[in-house]
Write the structure tokens for this entry.
Amino acid sequence: MSFQKEKPIVYPVSVAPMMDWTDRHFRYFLRLITRHSLLYTEMVTTGAILRGDQDRHLLFSPEEAPLSLQLGGDNPKALAECASIGEGYGYSEINLNVGCPSDKVQEGNFGACLMKDPDRVADCISEMDSKTSLPITVKSRIGVRGKESLEDLSEFVRKVSQAGAKRITIHARIAILEGLSPAQNRSVPPLRYEDVYEIKRRYPDLVIELNGGVKTLEDIASHLTRVDGVMIGRAAYENPFLFTNVDRLFFGSSARDITRREIFLSMQEYLSKKTEQGEKPSRILKHLLGAFHEIRGARSYRRILTEKMHSNPGPTLLLEALQSISAEYLDQKLETEEPASVITLESVV
Ligand SMILES: Cc1cc2nc3c(=O)[nH]c(=O)nc-3n(C[C@H](O)[C@H](O)[C@H](O)COP(=O)(O)O)c2cc1C
């Protein structure tokens, strides 16, 4: 076994791949809050990598690691080639998307519709596994309409793990491929956590991660008594400081002596550097809009940013917007050495 294959695959907490949201700028910001959670890229299709601008799709800052590259595709050879290219860019692992229900993805016959064809997914995994020394992981749904029983899921998990998948993340809802938009597919089909727990019971040696509807640190702690990892999507974007204390509570690291102001000063530095390199400030600042979830002054902070970020904002716009938030809150230590119990956002603000 190569060194790379021994990279860790059990991460108690991760941040979900989200198109347009978990781009490199948001990941850089989140990494300032949690050093250990696994981060994912947005889904990148094999076509985009093989026929598009690879640097645009794949470059990231070394600070973002550990970072999983999520691929979208259904052709084993193309996926294997992309996995190998991803290894060259320094990703920590390669993840296959078997959960996206969008029409575009269905037209390409990948994403969630691949759940109907576990043998094909297995072929993709084993081909990728043979062409890269990185761990290959999978993100799926509970099932798709018509193939949605626990037995179907169990067969899927067995086949993809036998093909070499090192971790399976299961979004605990089925996907309904006709008639529901991707957003509806993230809320209409009911959550079936029990099915994910049952998969972990049936395959105790497999690394199983649960995803869907997790919003608090208590939720994470509770799921972790039944599965190996928990993936957070929307809540991470809408409230990034939810990840305050995640490292301490779930990765066993000690509290860092860091404040929110210091995190924003680091983002200001990043913003200046990237803007100098030609990036549009709004592409970075848009990810900071949700930073002060339910905090006094958040509305004014957001208004200042949204009004000015698109029209050639000056270098101090972020600092100007921050003045809406109280100094007391900004200068509070981010991580607190509280008893080892789980604390919620409410108790740390
Ligand atoms: C804006 C947005 C974009 C998403 N893009 C992807 C994607 O590229 N790949 C993927 O596997 N899932 C994608 N998802 C689904 C999430 O990864 C996750 O499975 C889903 O949001 C459920 O988790 P949550 O309830 O914690 O948000 C996306 C979700 C959102 C909200």
